[in-house]
């Protein structure tokens, strides 16, 4: 990002299981990094306290006082409105409803703060400093337990009037499909996410299909996860390979929709499930190619996320710096 070389922001990536905070400069460089566990089940006050502890630790590690920060950026899971700074609701933070998270953090640190969805933050991180560099029309997808996304149009994050745009994981792929956490049926994340992969594996194991997936999970059905399926597939298990091919198929169906609707230059895929790599992604790209219009498909480049677990914290900081420049 241009200008303001000496500007610093505190990035906060608040997840359902972990909190990551970092002092980040205007080049996207992390000057510190604090990682802690989200006490999600202990409620809102405990989580906010944990965020503040992590923030103070990241500031201390970077040798920075809050007054030296230009702004604070918070990426949080669930639906939030960047213009009001309110987190509406979050499946990963039980009991949170219409929390003015931006203002709470701003007050604690005495600095201007900005709130966005965690996947949108990661999209911004990849757009400025990762695999989306140089593009103007860009889509980021994180495929992990669920599927999240961020959409950049003409170089700007598209948020929509309520700030909730980019929920690609909830586009309906099969109207009679599995029930989603959101209440609908057949959302993309019920068919192509890590949770979907594990659920289908468990269903078939319970039906008695022959497979080594259960061994990979230590013999306990509740421990069957995407990683166990991946490991079994690598070891030549036929069912595991079929399950990954099924996920790839549905991933490709969703990608085709995104390509036809947005005609993006780049689609960057991150998240834990994407680390399965070519076994999952190549057939997904091929399926997208069979379904999307030829011209936008040819024009779209697929890339793996480059910033790994740091895309959200770097993106939250970059968003905060970008927004604060806009105000001045
Ligand atoms: Zn849904």
Written overview of the protein:
It is a single chain. The chain has 328 residues and is of the alpha/beta class. It has 11 helices and 13 strands. It has helices spanning 44-62, 101-109, 118-129, 188-192, 194-206, 213-216, 226-234, 238-262, 278-291, 294-299, 311-327; strands at 8-14, 18-25, 34-37, 71-76, 79-81, 86-89, 97-99, 113-117, 138-143, 147-153, 156-157, 266-270, 301-304. The strands form 3 sheets. It has a 5-stranded mixed sheet. A 5-stranded mixed sheet has the order 11-10-9-12-13. It has a 3-stranded antiparallel sheet with strand order 5-6-7, covered by helices on one side. Strand 6 (86-89) and strand 7 (97-99) form a beta hairpin. Helix 3 crosses helix 11, helix 5 (194-206) packs antiparallel against helix 8 and helix 8 (238-262) packs across helix 9. The longest helix is centred in the C-terminal third of the chain and has 25 residues, at 238-262. The two termini are 16 Å apart. Bound molecules: zinc ion (ZN). Zinc ion binds next to loops.
What are the defining features of this structure?
328 residues; alpha/beta; 13 strands; 20% strand; binds zinc ion
Please sum up the structure shown.
This protein has 328 residues and is an alpha/beta fold. It is built from 11 helices and 13 strands.
């Amino acid at each position: 990002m241009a200008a303001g070389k000496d500007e610093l922001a505190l990035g906060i990536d608040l997840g359902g299981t972990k909190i990551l905070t970092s002092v980040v400069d205007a080049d996207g460089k992390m000057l510190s990094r604090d990682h802690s566990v989200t006490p999600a089940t202990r409620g809102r006050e405990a989580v906010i306290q944990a965020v503040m502890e992590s923030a103070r630790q990241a500031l201390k590690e970077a040798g920075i006082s809050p007054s030296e920060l230009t702004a604070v950026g918070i990426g949080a899971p669930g639906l939030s409105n960047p213009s009001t700074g309110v987190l509406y609701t979050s499946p990963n933070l039980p009991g949170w409803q219409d929390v003015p998270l931006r203002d709470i953090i701003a007050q604690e640190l005495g600095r201007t703060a900005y709130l966005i969805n965690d996947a949108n933050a990661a999209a911004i991180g990849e757009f400025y400093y990762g695999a989306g560099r140089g593009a103007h029309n860009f889509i980021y997808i994180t495929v992990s337990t669920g599927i999240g996304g961020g959409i950049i149009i003409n170089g700007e994050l598209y948020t929509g009037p309520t700030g909730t745009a980019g929920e690609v994981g909830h586009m309906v792929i099969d109207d009679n499909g599995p029930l989603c956490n959101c209440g609908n049926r057949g959302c993309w994340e019920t068919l192509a996410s890590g949770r979907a992969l594990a659920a289908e594996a468990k269903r078939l194991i319970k039906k008695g299909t022959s497979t080594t997936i259960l061994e990979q999970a230590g013999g306990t059905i509740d421990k069957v996860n995407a990683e166990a399926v991946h490991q079994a597939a690598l070891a030549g298990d036929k069912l595991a390979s079929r399950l990954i091919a099924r996920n790839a198929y549905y991933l490709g169906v969703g990608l085709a929709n995104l390509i036809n609707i947005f005609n993006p230059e780049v689609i960057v895929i991150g998240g834990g499930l994407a680390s399965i790599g070519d076994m999952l992604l190549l057939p997904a790209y091929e399926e997208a190619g069979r379904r999307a219009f030829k011209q936008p498909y040819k024009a779209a480049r697929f890339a793996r996320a480059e910033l790994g677990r740091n895309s959200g914290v770097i993106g939250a900081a970059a968003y905060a710096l970008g927004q604060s420049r806009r105000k001045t």
